[in-house]
Amino acid sequence: MEISGETLKAIMRNYPTGVTIVTTVYNNEYYGLTVNSFTSLSLNPPLVLIAIDKRLQSHEAIDKSNVYAVNILPDDMKDLAIKFATAPREERFKGLKLRTAKTGAPIIEGSIAYLDCKVTAKYPGGDHTIFIGEIVDAQILNNKAPLIYYNRGYYSIAQAKPLP
Ligand SMILES: Cc1cc2nc3c(=O)[nH]c(=O)nc-3n(C[C@H](O)[C@H](O)[C@H](O)COP(=O)(O)O)c2cc1C
Q1: CA angle 72, 76, 82 (to 5 degrees)
Q2: Which atom of ligand 1 is nearest to the CA of 38?
Q3: 24: Cβ below 6 Å to ligand 1?
């Protein structure tokens, strides 16, 4: 059975995710993009993964720097999620408070938590590449409510109804 891209997208819209901004530093320049393909992979060793479109400039930057940091976004950073998905690269970091992670990747102040990673493996995934990251540093920064992406819209987990 052939599944069209449109059908696949329509199906995946039913699967809510958190929202992150993945950053890296390459040639002394910061790169960052909004990512929801972030997944926890292994506890021992501590591994995560992200899947990045091969056509993106961020793909080249992560592929060459072999480091990335995952910033987990709270519900008050929706505008930043949109910015890091749509604005030109030079505008994305403007006005942000940043700190530098161990790998040199920028951490965005106000994120709920970050994971600083070294790329230990890369796997082809069709038009994306799966970058496995070994966590070299990580920290929880605050206890804000996470931002959720669902059906092409943004939500706060704070509005979600806990099931009995
Ligand atoms: C909620 C959301 C999640 C996204 N997740 C991913 C992802 O997991 N992988 C990816 O390659 N692009 C993802 N994107 C698209 C990139 O953020 C977008 O293409 C970005 O402009 C790429 O930046 P660049 O062109 O500077 O590399 C996502 C976009 C949104 C809005």
Answers
A1: 75
A2: 8
A3: no
Q: Which residues contact 97 (CB under 8 A, 6 or more apart)?
A: 108, 109, 110
Query: What are the tens digits of pLDDT across the range 142-157?
Result: 999 999 999 999 999 9
State residue 118's pLDDT score. Answer: 98
Instruction: Indicate the CATH number of 16-157 among 3.90.1150.10, 2.160.20.10, 2.30.110.10, 3.90.79.10.
Output: 2.30.110.10
pTM for this structure?
0.97
Where do the structural domains in the chain lie, given as residue ranges? 16-157
* Centre of ligand 1 from the C-alpha of residue 126, in Å: 16
What does the CA dihedral 147, 150, 152, 154 come to, rounded to 10 degrees?
A: -30
Residues ≥6 apart with Cβ < 8 Å to 89:
31, 57
